[in-house]
Protein backbone atom coordinates (compact mmCIF):
# COMPACT_ATOMS: atom_id res chain seq x y z
CA UNK A 1 0.00 0.00 0.00
CA UNK A 2 1.60 3.31 -1.02
CA UNK A 3 2.11 6.12 1.44
CA UNK A 4 0.60 9.56 1.10
CA UNK A 5 2.59 12.80 1.04
CA UNK A 6 1.17 16.21 1.96
CA UNK A 7 3.21 19.30 1.16
CA UNK A 8 3.15 22.44 3.29
CA UNK A 9 0.94 24.67 1.13
CA UNK A 10 1.90 27.94 -0.47
CA UNK A 11 -0.39 30.92 -0.03
CA UNK A 12 -3.35 30.83 -0.11
CA UNK A 13 -3.05 28.23 2.64
CA UNK A 14 -5.20 25.11 2.70
CA UNK A 15 -6.06 23.96 6.20
CA UNK A 16 -5.96 20.22 5.36
CA UNK A 17 -2.19 20.00 4.94
CA UNK A 18 -1.52 22.48 7.75
CA UNK A 19 -3.76 20.66 10.22
CA UNK A 20 -2.25 17.26 9.42
CA UNK A 21 1.36 18.44 9.72
CA UNK A 22 0.76 20.50 12.86
CA UNK A 23 -1.18 17.70 14.59
CA UNK A 24 1.61 15.18 13.97
CA UNK A 25 4.13 17.58 15.52
CA UNK A 26 1.94 18.59 18.48
CA UNK A 27 1.23 14.98 19.46
CA UNK A 28 4.83 13.79 19.19
CA UNK A 29 6.55 13.41 22.59
CA UNK A 30 9.95 14.08 21.00
CA UNK A 31 10.94 16.36 18.12
CA UNK A 32 14.27 15.80 16.40
CA UNK A 33 15.81 19.16 15.56
CA UNK A 34 18.65 19.36 13.06
CA UNK A 35 20.98 22.31 12.44
CA UNK A 36 24.49 23.00 11.18
CA UNK A 37 27.09 23.76 13.85
CA UNK A 38 30.10 25.76 12.64
CA UNK A 39 32.60 23.55 14.49
CA UNK A 40 31.33 20.21 13.12
CA UNK A 41 31.50 18.65 9.64
CA UNK A 42 28.20 16.88 10.31
CA UNK A 43 24.70 18.20 11.00
CA UNK A 44 23.71 18.18 14.67
CA UNK A 45 20.46 16.49 15.73
CA UNK A 46 18.86 17.13 19.12
CA UNK A 47 15.79 15.58 20.76
CA UNK A 48 13.64 18.46 22.01
CA UNK A 49 10.07 19.19 23.07
CA UNK A 50 7.92 21.78 21.39
CA UNK A 51 4.47 22.85 20.25
CA UNK A 52 2.92 24.69 17.33
CA UNK A 53 1.08 27.87 18.31
CA UNK A 54 0.54 31.56 17.63
CA UNK A 55 1.24 34.14 20.33
CA UNK A 56 -0.33 36.94 18.26
CA UNK A 57 -3.45 34.78 17.64
CA UNK A 58 -3.85 32.53 20.71
CA UNK A 59 -7.19 31.16 19.47
CA UNK A 60 -5.66 29.84 16.22
CA UNK A 61 -6.09 26.09 15.75
CA UNK A 62 -3.91 23.51 14.00
CA UNK A 63 -5.46 24.38 10.64
CA UNK A 64 -4.07 27.92 10.79
CA UNK A 65 -0.59 29.27 10.07
CA UNK A 66 1.45 28.69 13.26
CA UNK A 67 4.95 29.07 14.63
CA UNK A 68 6.87 26.26 16.33
CA UNK A 69 8.09 26.92 19.88
CA UNK A 70 11.02 24.86 21.18
CA UNK A 71 12.15 24.65 24.82
CA UNK A 72 15.73 24.21 26.00
CA UNK A 73 18.49 25.18 28.40
CA UNK A 74 19.65 28.76 27.99
CA UNK A 75 23.34 27.96 27.43
CA UNK A 76 22.86 24.99 25.08
CA UNK A 77 24.56 25.07 21.71
CA UNK A 78 21.37 25.54 19.73
CA UNK A 79 20.32 28.51 21.87
CA UNK A 80 23.75 30.15 21.55
CA UNK A 81 23.73 29.66 17.79
CA UNK A 82 20.21 31.05 17.48
CA UNK A 83 21.25 34.17 19.38
CA UNK A 84 24.31 34.53 17.15
CA UNK A 85 22.26 34.09 13.98
CA UNK A 86 19.53 36.54 14.88
CA UNK A 87 19.59 38.93 11.94
CA UNK A 88 22.55 37.18 10.29
CA UNK A 89 23.06 34.45 7.76
CA UNK A 90 24.62 31.04 8.47
CA UNK A 91 28.16 32.49 8.32
CA UNK A 92 27.41 35.19 10.89
CA UNK A 93 27.34 37.98 8.28
CA UNK A 94 24.54 40.49 7.99
CA UNK A 95 21.75 39.14 5.80
CA UNK A 96 18.81 40.64 3.97
CA UNK A 97 16.94 37.37 4.30
CA UNK A 98 14.62 36.37 7.15
CA UNK A 99 16.68 36.25 10.38
CA UNK A 100 17.29 33.20 12.50
CA UNK A 101 19.07 29.87 12.71
CA UNK A 102 17.99 27.48 9.90
CA UNK A 103 16.43 24.33 11.39
CA UNK A 104 14.85 21.11 10.21
CA UNK A 105 12.39 19.51 12.65
CA UNK A 106 11.04 15.95 12.33
CA UNK A 107 8.27 14.06 14.16
CA UNK A 108 7.17 10.44 13.68
CA UNK A 109 4.44 8.17 15.06
CA UNK A 110 4.43 4.42 14.36
CA UNK A 111 0.88 3.02 14.33
CA UNK A 112 1.50 -0.58 13.30
CA UNK A 113 3.77 -3.30 11.95
CA UNK A 114 2.75 -4.26 8.42
CA UNK A 115 3.70 -7.93 7.86
CA UNK A 116 3.57 -9.12 4.26
CA UNK A 117 4.28 -12.34 2.39
CA UNK A 118 7.86 -11.32 1.57
CA UNK A 119 10.42 -9.25 3.53
CA UNK A 120 10.60 -6.66 0.74
CA UNK A 121 6.92 -5.79 1.19
CA UNK A 122 7.04 -5.33 4.97
CA UNK A 123 6.35 -1.82 6.20
CA UNK A 124 4.98 0.33 9.02
CA UNK A 125 1.74 2.20 9.34
CA UNK A 126 3.04 5.62 10.33
CA UNK A 127 2.55 9.37 10.39
CA UNK A 128 5.59 11.58 9.93
CA UNK A 129 6.12 15.29 9.42
CA UNK A 130 9.09 17.53 8.70
CA UNK A 131 9.10 21.32 8.86
CA UNK A 132 11.82 23.77 7.89
CA UNK A 133 12.26 27.27 9.26
CA UNK A 134 14.42 29.82 11.03
CA UNK A 135 14.64 30.01 14.82
CA UNK A 136 15.04 33.17 16.88
CA UNK A 137 15.11 33.48 20.69
CA UNK A 138 11.91 34.63 22.34
CA UNK A 139 12.94 37.74 24.27
CA UNK A 140 9.56 39.19 25.20
CA UNK A 141 8.79 38.05 28.76
CA UNK A 142 5.04 37.66 28.17
CA UNK A 143 5.51 35.62 24.99
CA UNK A 144 8.14 33.44 26.67
CA UNK A 145 5.81 32.69 29.59
CA UNK A 146 2.97 31.96 27.16
CA UNK A 147 5.19 29.59 25.16
CA UNK A 148 6.32 27.74 28.29
CA UNK A 149 2.68 27.21 29.27
CA UNK A 150 1.87 26.05 25.72
CA UNK A 151 4.70 23.50 25.75
CA UNK A 152 3.96 22.27 29.29
CA UNK A 153 0.29 21.69 28.48
CA UNK A 154 1.39 19.95 25.29
CA UNK A 155 3.12 17.32 27.43
CA UNK A 156 0.17 16.80 29.80
CA UNK A 157 -3.06 18.69 29.15
CA UNK A 158 -3.82 21.34 31.81
CA UNK A 159 -0.62 20.59 33.72
CA UNK A 160 0.63 24.21 33.89
CA UNK A 161 -2.01 25.57 36.28
CA UNK A 162 -1.68 22.49 38.49
CA UNK A 163 1.97 23.26 39.26
CA UNK A 164 3.77 25.96 41.22
CA UNK A 165 3.61 28.87 38.79
CA UNK A 166 4.77 31.32 37.64
CA UNK A 167 8.42 30.25 37.36
CA UNK A 168 10.88 32.18 39.48
CA UNK A 169 13.17 34.76 37.82
CA UNK A 170 16.06 32.29 38.15
CA UNK A 171 14.02 29.57 36.42
CA UNK A 172 13.10 31.96 33.63
CA UNK A 173 16.73 32.97 33.15
CA UNK A 174 17.90 29.35 32.94
CA UNK A 175 15.33 28.44 30.30
CA UNK A 176 15.30 29.57 26.69
CA UNK A 177 12.54 29.34 24.11
CA UNK A 178 12.99 29.46 20.35
CA UNK A 179 10.29 30.60 17.96
CA UNK A 180 10.58 28.94 14.55
CA UNK A 181 8.88 30.67 11.64
CA UNK A 182 7.97 27.74 9.41
CA UNK A 183 8.83 28.25 5.75
CA UNK A 184 8.04 24.78 4.37
CA UNK A 185 7.11 21.30 5.43
CA UNK A 186 5.48 18.03 4.53
CA UNK A 187 3.75 15.01 6.02
CA UNK A 188 3.96 11.39 4.93
CA UNK A 189 1.38 8.85 6.09
CA UNK A 190 0.74 5.15 5.53
CA UNK A 191 -2.39 3.26 6.55
CA UNK A 192 -3.96 -0.04 5.62
CA UNK A 193 -3.15 -3.70 5.30
CA UNK A 194 -0.20 -5.30 3.50
CA UNK A 195 0.05 -4.79 -0.23
CA UNK A 196 2.50 -4.81 -3.09
CA UNK A 197 3.07 -8.55 -3.32
CA UNK A 198 3.78 -10.01 -6.73
CA UNK A 199 0.93 -11.61 -8.62
CA UNK A 200 2.58 -15.00 -8.26
CA UNK A 201 2.89 -14.71 -4.47
CA UNK A 202 -0.60 -13.29 -4.03
CA UNK A 203 -2.05 -16.17 -6.04
CA UNK A 204 -0.18 -18.93 -4.22
CA UNK A 205 -2.56 -20.63 -1.73
CA UNK A 206 0.23 -22.72 -0.20
CA UNK A 207 2.22 -19.56 0.57
CA UNK A 208 -0.86 -17.86 2.03
CA UNK A 209 -1.44 -20.89 4.28
CA UNK A 210 2.16 -20.84 5.52
CA UNK A 211 2.96 -17.12 6.03
CA UNK A 212 0.83 -15.01 8.38
CA UNK A 213 0.12 -11.56 6.98
CA UNK A 214 -1.59 -8.56 8.49
CA UNK A 215 -0.98 -5.62 10.80
CA UNK A 216 0.13 -5.53 14.43
CA UNK A 217 -1.26 -2.22 15.78
CA UNK A 218 1.21 -0.25 17.91
CA UNK A 219 0.62 2.71 20.21
CA UNK A 220 1.96 4.34 23.35
CA UNK A 221 0.20 3.58 26.63
CA UNK A 222 0.07 5.77 29.74
CA UNK A 223 0.36 3.38 32.68
CA UNK A 224 -0.71 3.89 36.30
CA UNK A 225 1.14 6.93 37.73
CA UNK A 226 3.84 6.21 40.32
CA UNK A 227 4.08 8.86 43.07
CA UNK A 228 7.43 10.51 43.63
CA UNK A 229 9.25 10.40 46.99
CA UNK A 230 8.14 13.94 47.85
CA UNK A 231 4.54 13.57 46.67
CA UNK A 232 1.97 14.62 49.25
CA UNK A 233 -1.21 14.23 47.16
CA UNK A 234 -3.04 11.06 48.18
CA UNK A 235 -5.03 10.51 44.97
CA UNK A 236 -4.05 10.94 41.35
CA UNK A 237 -5.70 14.25 40.34
CA UNK A 238 -8.77 14.15 38.11
CA UNK A 239 -7.14 16.20 35.33
CA UNK A 240 -4.33 13.64 35.13
CA UNK A 241 -6.77 10.71 35.12
CA UNK A 242 -8.74 12.41 32.35
CA UNK A 243 -5.58 13.04 30.34
CA UNK A 244 -4.47 9.41 30.65
CA UNK A 245 -7.87 8.08 29.59
CA UNK A 246 -8.07 10.43 26.60
CA UNK A 247 -4.47 9.68 25.59
CA UNK A 248 -4.89 5.89 25.74
CA UNK A 249 -8.27 5.87 24.01
CA UNK A 250 -7.07 8.13 21.20
CA UNK A 251 -3.79 6.25 20.72
CA UNK A 252 -5.54 2.87 20.48
CA UNK A 253 -8.25 4.19 18.18
CA UNK A 254 -5.66 5.78 15.87
CA UNK A 255 -3.62 2.56 15.62
CA UNK A 256 -6.69 0.41 14.91
CA UNK A 257 -8.04 2.86 12.33
CA UNK A 258 -4.65 3.00 10.62
CA UNK A 259 -4.73 -0.78 10.21
CA UNK A 260 -8.26 -0.95 8.80
CA UNK A 261 -8.40 2.21 6.68
CA UNK A 262 -7.08 1.88 3.12
CA UNK A 263 -4.90 4.75 1.95
CA UNK A 264 -6.92 7.19 -0.13
CA UNK A 265 -5.41 8.26 -3.44
CA UNK A 266 -3.82 11.70 -3.28
CA UNK A 267 -3.50 13.36 -6.70
CA UNK A 268 -1.08 15.98 -5.34
CA UNK A 269 1.27 13.43 -3.76
CA UNK A 270 4.81 13.45 -5.11
From TrEMBL:
InterPro entries the record matches: Pyridox_Oxase-rel (IPR024747), Split_barrel_FMN-bd (IPR012349)
Superkingdom: Eukaryota
Protein name: Flavin-nucleotide-binding protein
Pfam family, one: Pyridox_ox_2
